[in-house]
Amino acid sequence: MDPVGTWPLTPVPAVVRRFDPPDLPYGAGHRGVDLAGRPGQEVRSALPGQVTFAGRIAGRGVVVVDHGPTRTTYEPVAASVSVGTAVAAGAVVGRLELAGSHCQPHACLHWGWIAGRTYLDPLRLVDAAGPVRLLPLTGELPAEVGSGSTGRRTGGVGAAVSRGVGSLARLGADAIRARAP
Ligand SMILES: [Zn+2]
Fold it and tell me: Domains of the chain, with CATH numbers?
């Protein structure tokens, strides 16, 4: 059972790049998700916890919040909290920076969720990870899209789309290249 967290950016941001855990510990992948934002935007802790890192790593501002069994990471962020600060879910931990963005020339928040040494999909914290579903490239959207069904549509050639029209809108172009399960 995943904890229920809050989005680190408000309003609910577009997911620019999804979670893609590497096959090997040092392999290629994406150890978190990138959320579209603007420089200076407030960044919030997804869960209550305690700040265990607030500083710069290789020039990039990083904030880490410990939640007990897991921790969340936020970057590039100019921290407004210090190590040891207790934060509530939704509490501001800093402001989004452009330097170090994974989405250059645009600003975005790289949001990570880690249990020990294992990277998890932080979208699970906001119930946005969801199963991937297939939609036909042409024609009407299947009737069940947006109905809350979690069934997987296997018919038709198509773009993979996360569940629900709301998710589709948030994912934008990312949905088009989302991986099949
Ligand atoms: Zn990233």
Answer: 15-126 (2.70.70.10), 132-176 (no CATH)
